[in-house]
Request: fold
Amino acid sequence: MDRIIERPRNFHATLDTNARELLTNPDFALIAQSYGLHGETVRSTDEIVDTVERALMSPTGALLHVITDPTLRAPSPEVPAGVMNGDRP
Reply:
């Protein structure tokens, strides 16, 4: 018999907080550079345009590691009823 396990309402917030405390990301730009690629880390919106231009001019592939604010959430898309079945509202 299958059991349904309910997650607490703040499950994702708790998970995100714990993950931030326990894990740190590697320097992805440095890893890209170690493979001969163009790699840069973007820490602010002021850096984006110049960094993307340099990446596009690179003769090799490029990896841009964009640091974002972990407390901000992307908006959840609202799917109108019936759209999942191919119907249009």
